[in-house]
Every structure is written in C-alpha cells, then in structure tokens.
Amino acid sequence: MTDRKSWTAAQWFLGFFGVMTTTFFYTNSMDPFNIPKSILIITGGISISLASTSLVKKIERVRLIFALVGILFGITFILLGIIGTNDTQRLLFGAYSRATGLLSYLGLTLLFIMAIFFTRGQKYEWVYASLVTIAGIEFLYGLIQYFNADFIKWQNGYNRIIGTLGNPNFMSATLGFSGVALVAFSLNSQITTWKRISYGLLSLGELFLALASDSVQGPLIWAIGATVVIALWLRYKSKYKWLFISFSGLAATTLAFLFAGVAKLGPFADLLYQYTLNIRSQYWRAATKMMLEEPVHGIGVDSFGEGFRKVRDFETFKIIGPDVYSNAAHSVPLQLGATVGIPVLTLYVVIQILVLWRLIHSIKKFPNQIMFISGIGGAWIAFQAQSFISIDQLGVGIWGWLLSGAIIGGSFALNSEVPETKKSKKIDFKKSNVGTFVTLASVFSIIIFAVAWKIMYVPDFAVRNAIAIPYSQENQTYASLRIQAIESALKTGPRDVTYQSILVQELAKMNGTGPQTLDASVRVATNFPNSWEAQNLAATVQEALSNFDKAVPYRLKQLQLDPNNWVPRFSLAVDYEKSNKLNLARSEYQRIIDLAPNSPEATNATANLKKMG
377 by DSSP, 3-state: which? Predict the structure, then answer.
C-alpha cells in the first residue's frame, strides 16, 4: 500500500489546484476567467502526474482498471479531436471565452486519474477541505457583490453575483454543489458541534446567494444533493425507519414539483421557470443534429458555435429568432457528443456509470462513514444534475472530474484495500518518497504554468494592450501609435477569429483607416472561411466603403454557413440592388418575405420591392 504521507501530499496538491482553478481570475486580459482556469488545470494535471512517478510504490490493479477508462477517454478525445478539428488554435485551446480545448481536457483527465490513485479512505479530507475553502471564498466575495461593494468594476450584463466564475449561473452552480457537502458536515456527529453549526450556516448562506443570483441552477441542485444527504442520514443514522420512508416520499414528490416548475408546469412554474430553458432546448436539438451528421468525430473541438448556425432550422428561428446564438450546447454530455463525437460521449457516460456504481458500493460497504460518503456523493449528484443543463465552465467542471476520481478512489477499504488475488495483483513502481514528490510537483507546476501562461496569455496581452492605448482623433501621434499597435496585434495576437474581429472593429473606429480595415477584414474572412462572424465583418466593411458588389461573396458565404437566416439575406438583397443587379435583388427580397413574413426584414423587403417597381 502506498505510504500515507505520500498520498496525503498528492491529495493536497489535487485540492490546491481544484480551489485555485475555481477561484483564480486575472483582470488584465481579454479573457479574465477561462484562460487562467485552463492554465491551472493543465498545470495541475501534468505536474501531479509527472511527479507521481517518483511517489508511487504500488498501485492496485483494480485502481489501474478504473484509471484506464479515463486514459481511454483522453486518448479518444485527442485522436478524434485531431481528426475532426481543422483549426489548430481551436483544437488546443478551445474557443474564445470557453477554453475547453484539447489541453484543458487532457488536464481534467489527468486530475481524474490522479484522484483515483491517491484518494484513500472514506473521509475525503482533501475534498472537503477544498469544497469548504471554495464555499467560504465564493460566499464572502458573493456577499460583497450582493451589497454592490465589489472592488472590481466588471463589465457585466448579468446579475451582479458572479463570484470568481464570471457568470451568475456558474456562480450559482458552485454555491449549490459545494453547499451540499456542507449539509453533510452539519449532520455529521463525528465532527465537533461548533463546526457542524458553522458549516450548516455557511451552506444556508450559499443557498441564499444562489437564490439572489436569479439563477435556478444552484438552488435546484442544492435541493437535489441535500435531499440525497438527508435521506442517507435518516436511512443509516435514524432508529425510525418510517422517517426515512416518509422523507423519501415527500422529497420525491417535492422534487417532481420542482422539476415540473422548471419546465413551466405545476404550482411552482411562476417561481422556477426561466425563459432560458426554451432557448437551451434549441441548443440541445442542434447538438443532437450535429451528432447525427458527424457521429464519429463530431464537428470539431469547441466548435459548437459554427455548427449551431448550420443546423438550426425554422423551428429554432420561430422559438428564439435569428439573433440568439451560442458557442456551447449548454449540456456537457451533448457538447462532447456534438464536438468530439459519440465515442467520446459514450466513454464519458461510462465513467459516470462507474462512479455511480462505486458510490453505491461505498454506501453499502462503509455505513460507519456514511455522512462523509453522502456529502461527496450528494455534491457529485448535484454537479451531474447541473452538467446536463449547463456549460462546461472550467471553474465548475473541474469538480466533476475531481469528485468522480475521489469517489472511485475512496470506494476501496483503507486497510488491506485489495486482497492478493489474480484479479488484483499490485504493480510495483518506485520507493515512496514524499519529499521528492513535493519538490518535483512544485518545480513542474512552476515550469508548466510559466510555459502555458506565455503561450496562452502573451498573445492575449498584445490584443488588450493595443486596444487599451488612449487616443484622440485630433492627436495624430497617439492615433498613429494605436493603429500600429492594432496592426501588430493582428499579426502576433491569438489566431482566433474573435480576437481578430475585435481588432478589426477597433481599427474601423479610427479616422482614415479605411484601407487598413479593409485589408484586415478580408484577411480575417480568408483565414476563417467557416466563421459566420468573419464573413459578416468583411461584408460590413465592404459595404461601409460602398463596395457593394465586393460584399456579395461574403454575404453568400454567410448564407452557406447559416442557410435559414433571413437577416444576412436582406443585406445581400440590398447589395444586389445597389450593384444594379435588380433581378437578383427582387428574388432575394421575395425570398425573405416567404421565409419570415412577420419579420422587420420582410417589411423592409416589401417596401424596397415597391420602390423598385
């Protein structure tokens, strides 16, 4: 069995990276939330994995079997991602404002495997310590935001309670699943009374903030997870079986009403229904279509945005209109299936089934540790409930993988974990050495973090620094300096369409930059032929310069990428009209009227047809 001090050290490294990933952000960048979290996941996964080769004395074969499923997931993700993704930047780092690329998933997979190896026993000290830390940090910062006293002036169009996650939905989800673990602590007679009271109050405080965030995710998953915890507490700690049966029936009925309310049914509909559910259902429909069209390797890593425009149909337009758009499926399983293929989705589902199996195994085998197990299990169930309806945001998503690995790792007995049978022979590595592990893990962490920071953030800084240069149209010196910086950032910044488009738009705002803006917009459209936004940008610039005939190819390309969207079709019709291609203009105007007779574009198309005679 691995030396206790050694695996304890590894556990705390896992917990450290879990906490840091959720809470760390960096305001001096274009993407203050997702890139820093991605860097920490990559750093943690690789550094702990490399350092563990000096630490591990023996690994039980049964643990290796579970770890191999994670390895298979990672390898399949990498291979299918490479096959299905034609943009190296997108493949490795993911889309702007998401950062769920291949490297992030590599880090998550490695953290999952390390959690399987090093989680020993059923008290889950490192997991609870990490979740309590997150709960405390997010509660305090969320409380500051609740009272409008945030020391950072976020450009935030959402509810002000965003915590360190950048969005009230992600904040609410974090408050929800971490609060579930605290419910278990508050009911655990094995810890001191004052701690139980403190954890219970903190959990209620998290629930309060989740409700105040106006996001239903947190309160709902808190209710689901807390229900699991309380049910297990009654089942194993209460002398009265009828209490467990009564609570289970009441809880099942209440949860059914809650789910019905979320779906705009029943007595809680007005309280719980959010219009975004209807929108999300269209994202889920689109993800399903993508899986059917590209079942093996998907449409490309983190490329849901491009695929969504291609597959959305009149039903989607009818429900959410042409302007609503997303670059994520708002469901972790569907996102994986749509972007990396059904094989990856299948392996992901297999992992969740294995985790559930080992959770049930632990509940049955270790009833004396039931409250520790129930808290981790309830938090995992709460996370899973959230992951079906929300984005794989890295600050939240890391806990799905860490909790999964911890549940599997903790499902084996602490003493004499695996009997020496043919099925469970132990595999020897090197002599355990906690000092060597800590040193190597620390050194690797610094090196990998520095390398990832340089690769992922230095180009980001070039963009931010360029557009942050103050200027005045009357002061040509400063204006010229800003133009030069933007043109330089277009060459040295990230090869990402969003970054590039932002720079072109900033260039267009400045007087006398028509030729530079035109050249840059054409270059971006050429480099990103599958980007609707890049084609729209080039067309808009051409139209601003009255080059209507030259705008036509970009508008046509837009319609290839988004065939049912009548908004760019109206722009195309105008371009045809102003290029004196009247028959083509009439045809497009009439097509708009047929497609969307009640739209503003149809009204304008009718008026233009009357003018043309």
Answer: helix
268 alpha-carbon distance from chain centroid: 29
CA–CA gap between residue 101 and residue 301 (Å, rounded)? 6
Query: Per-block average pLDDT, block size 10, for the chain (613 residues)?
Result: 72 97 95 96 97 74 91 98 95 94 98 95 94 97 96 88 95 97 94 94 97 92 94 84 81 76 66 71 94 96 94 87 91 97 98 97 94 97 94 96 97 61 45 79 96 93 90 76 92 92 93 92 95 96 96 97 94 96 95 93 94 83
Q: Cβ atoms within 10 A of the Cβ of 68, count?
A: 11
Q: Give the distance, in angstroms, between the CA of residue 66 and the centroid of all CA atoms in the same chain.
A: 25
Distance between start and end Cα atoms, the chain = 87
Cα(345)–Cα(32) distance, rounded to whole angstroms? 29
- Contact (CB, 8 A) for 355 and 404: yes
Per the CB < 8 A criterion, the answer to whether 126 and 15 are in contact is yes
What's the CA gap between 135 and 129, in Å, rounded?
A: 10
| Of 226, 280, 513, 532, the residue nearest 388 (C-alpha) | 280
Task: Give residue 263's pLDDT.
Answer: 64
Alpha-carbon span 175 to 201, nearest angstrom = 13
**pLDDT at res. 425:** 47
Residue 271 exposed, middle or buried by CB count within 10 Å (0-12, 13-18, 19+): exposed
Rounded to an integer, what distance in angstroms lies between the CA atom of residue 429 and that of residue 426?
10
Q: What is the DSSP letter of 426?
A: E
